Structures are given as structure tokens and as C-alpha cells.
Amino acid sequence: MFTGIVQGTAVVEAVSDNVGIRSIVLRFAPGFCEDLQVGASVSVNGVCLTATSIMDAVRSTFDVAVQSLAVTTLDDIELGESVNVERAAKEGAENGGHILSGHVDFKTPILEVVEIESNKRVRFQLPEDFRGYIFRKGYVAIDGCSLTVSHCDKRAGWFEVWLIPETRRVTIMDGKAEGAYVNIEIERQTQVIVDTVRDSVDRALGSLQPLLYSILEQRGVLLEDLLRLPSFREAPAEPAKLPASIPSNISTEDLDPE
């Protein structure tokens, strides 16, 4: 488990490919590898990797499986490249971010970078299959960084985050430009809520389910737009639920199969 509070960066010193496995050697800042043992987990650009050897006080080797290469940016990693790193969270330690598994859901390109004073606003492409899980003020992990979604347009297929000076200083995010790809892990609690509500709606509607989705699509509404998800960075809110009334831009007559 990780927190999304990146502890620093490491440099790729070697990359070697074998059958079904890519091995990488990382050089860390002094002190990062203290007590690190073979078999320990380290988040590398948001990907949970297992240490396979401890070479010395600042260098360790990690293996990347084929599935991880297919889904993440580690498929294109290069010598000399810097990566975000975080040690696995210890029980009872403070969590200033949110719980991460290190299981990346997809990689996506940066669409726009705008620098505003000492901050940056960064826009990312949002694939259709994951649009239901990204919400304004919700969590998202980008290259292992726990960040807050500042705005999103699900129909246009993008979302934005802001990078504060500390994030720019500690992580590799400040060096990312338009067109660069990043790893994304969606927030699991959000995923559970959305999937549970969606399944409940599907079961309740039965044969009317295709009709409802068709009507929502025609009206430019997503099912997830009807949910009231809790804001995980704020005080606990009411559990997610469907609204008591149908949105004003959907007529009750549209739901009559006759």
C-alpha cells in the first residue's frame, strides 16, 4: 500500500529485457534504501514493483511484468530518466494523500500545461472507459502522486489538476510537457461506489436499462452525473445515492417504454 506522497526521485541506471520480464536498476537518493530488503515493494511512477536485489546503499534492481509494461509508461522507460518513488506505507504512519495499490489503470497523454505564477494547471486525456470514475474534487494518482481533480469534462474526455510548488519541486511532474504520457490509478473507493450504484440501477431497471442509457446519451447526461459522491478530502458526506427526482432535462415520458 502507498499514500501517493512521493518521497523523491530515482534515476534509471540500467534496463534489460528477458522473456516476459524487464529488469531495471534504479539509483536512489542517499537514505531512501535504508532497511530496504529483497521482496519489498516500491512505487515507481505509481507502479508497485518488487525489489529483486539490493546492489548497494543507493542502488536496487526491480522486475516489471509484461502486463505492467502493456498498461504503464514503464514500457518506454529510458536510461538516465528520473522517476517518482515511494516506499510502501508502514502501519500507523500518517497518510497525507490517499490509499494507493500501485496497480495502474491506464496511461494517458498530457493535453495542455499552463503555468500560472508559481503553480501549473495540467490537463490530461480521459479515456471513455474511465470517465465514470473521475470527479471534481476527487482523488486521482498521477505517476504515483496523490492529486485532487480541479475540473473535468467527461463528454469532452479530459480532466485537470493543479501542481503546487512543493509538488513541482519533489516530483518529476514539473518536467512533463504536452504530449508526455503519465500513469493513472483511479481512487478505489470511488470505483466501488460507482460500480455498485451502476449495478443496482441495472438490476432495478431490468429490461428498461438500455432505454434509460439511450435517453441519457441523447440528453448529454452520464449516469454518474446523477450520483452524489462524497468528497474524500472534506468532511464525510452522505452515502452516494440516486437523486429523489429525475433531472429537469429528462422527461418522465422518456422512461415510458410504450
What do these coordinates show?
By secondary structure, the chain is an alpha+beta fold. The protein folds into three domains: 8-87, Elongation Factor Tu (Ef-tu), domain 3 (Beta Barrel); 106-186, Elongation Factor Tu (Ef-tu), domain 3; 190-255, no CATH class. The chain has four helices and twelve strands, in the order βββββαββββββαβαα.
Based on the model shown, name its key terms:
alpha+beta; 258 residues; Elongation Factor Tu (Ef-tu), domain 3; single chain; 12 strands; 3 domains; disordered C terminus; 4 helices; six-stranded antiparallel β-barrel; six-stranded antiparallel beta barrel
Helix-strand blueprint:
Elements: E1 8-18, E2 21-27, E3 41-44, E4 47-54, E5 59-65, H1 66-71, E6 82-87, E7 106-116, E8 119-125, E9 139-142, E10 145-153, E11 158-163, H2 165-170, E12 181-186, H3 188-205, H4 209-218
Antiparallel strand pairs: 1-2, 1-6, 2-5, 3-4, 3-6, 4-5, 7-8, 7-12, 8-11, 9-10, 9-12, 10-11
